[in-house]
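Ticket #166: bound-state structure for iron/sulfur cluster.
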Amino acid sequence: MIVERPKLTIWDRLYMPQILKGMWITLKHIPMKRFTRQYPEETPPLPKRYRGVPTLVRDPEQRVKCVACQLCEFVCPPRAITVIPGFRAETGPDAKVEKEPSDFIIDMARCIYCGLCEEACPEEAIFLKKDYAMASYTREQMKLHKEKLLELGGIHEDRICKWKKK
Ligand code: SF4
Ligand code: SF4
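RESOLUTION: The complex was predicted; output attached.
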């Protein structure tokens, strides 16, 4: 079977119809709405329950709420948490609480912002904030220690009241 080639006109040989047709399809797909965001100057709106960076909190009287039980360390899927338990002073009004972390390290390069640590904590001492930009030049700088985590977490209402005598 012989297939006859169609005869091309000069206009066809210039490929102009095809080029114009292609450009028309491209123009049809140019959106009227602008989707590009000038990050970081323009940040996206976050949902109410957005899970960001995990942080440690203090109670309204500036006491560290964490009791170094290590439950969060145990549940953390990527093993981003390292708790180094320490003992509190046994005298004074806060003697009822035996332990607190001498250091508490969260490796933000490992953390997947899952929120399991917050759910597991019996003392409501660790909370996920809405911050998510934790960039750094080295892996070591991505490991946040106790003081930095407490600074990020700030003060949180104490519903556990472990300090009060029964
Ligand atoms: S948010 Fe998830 S991954 Fe991050 S420290 Fe907590 S348990 Fe680990
Ligand atoms: S943050 Fe909560 S779960 Fe983790 S060690 Fe402290 S008290 Fe325990």
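RESOLUTION NOTES: Residues 54-153 form a domain with the Alpha-Beta Plaits fold (CATH 3.30.70.3270).
TICKET STATUS: resolved
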